[in-house]
Amino acid sequence: MTYIKEIKPGQSESKVIKDLIDHIVFDEKLDNQYDFLERATIFAQELPRSIREEFYHFKRHEKYAAIHVKDNPVLLNGVQPTPRKLIELEDGYKINDAKILLGLYGSLLGEGMGFTSQRNGSIYNNIIPFEELQSIPNSSSGSNKDFGFHVEDAFHPARAEFLGLVCMRNEERAPTTISCIDGIELTDNEKELLFQDRFYISHNPIHSTSNIVNEEGQAILFGAKEEPYVRINAAALNLDNNSLDEIKAVNKIIDFFNKNKKSVVLNTSDCIFVDNFRCVHARDAYEPFFGEKARWLARVVFTTDLKKFRGMRGSVQSRAIIA
């Protein structure tokens, strides 16, 4: 079952949120992503209690596939033109109020993190369609091919528990599709196979990996056998070396995802957070408005424990996982 919880800040909550963001932007001048994230967890405790409660329940009780926060008090003066390049790669990259809110909400779930193999380790990643990349499959910068079901950064053992997105612009009305593994019925034999390190889980084009992670011989299911977590990249699946029983078990999971998927169209200022251990997400092909009116989201993933992966980070201060 894929249940997406929708919440919308009320008038008084919106005022508290806006005042907090204004303080961060104008008083603290924290528009550098790294400086901001070092203080985001503390600032997040000033969000309305009702918002903090919703995020805690989402994190702790695993009842929802995702939490969708609508009509946030950001981008009130309009949205800048969609960038024509990956601005997070530039020196002096600054985050706007919508991205700050994404970091505040996400900090209620964990610590923002990135990968050295992904846009030079930037924690914030802009999702923008580019005309020259429109035919690249399984790419957040592509558009005319489906981006199939996948767990974010499924190939990596340090993948984050939560995926966060904020929408700057989506005039194309392109939906984000989410599907949760909760409720799947598998035989004991299917579980036995899927819990073993028998599967090739590859990275998507956004990662320029240096082959630090062995993508072969990984398990698709992990955690508790009665309520398993999932790690799969069906967008780039290769089962050439798997047995017929293993292939059938994997296809059963993919069929379940297709039957239980839900689509969400994000509007300007909307944030959505997906449980990246229990859910996959996808994006169907669409026709973008290339240029300044193109679809524009920003993504940050959040881990509940950066310390656990200290051996995969260059320093204590670094949020970028080596990949």
UniProtKB/TrEMBL annotation:
Domain of life of the organism encoding this protein: Bacteria
Residues where Fe cation binds: H150, E152
Protein's UniProt name: Uncharacterized protein
Keywords, alphabetical: Iron, Metal-binding, Oxidoreductase
Keyword Metal-binding attributed: yes
SUPFAM superfamilies: Clavaminate synthase-like
GO molecular function, one term: 2-oxoglutarate-dependent dioxygenase activity
Organism classification: Bacteria, Pseudomonadati, Pseudomonadota, Gammaproteobacteria, Enterobacterales
Annotated family: Belongs to the clavaminate synthase family.
Keyword match Iron: yes
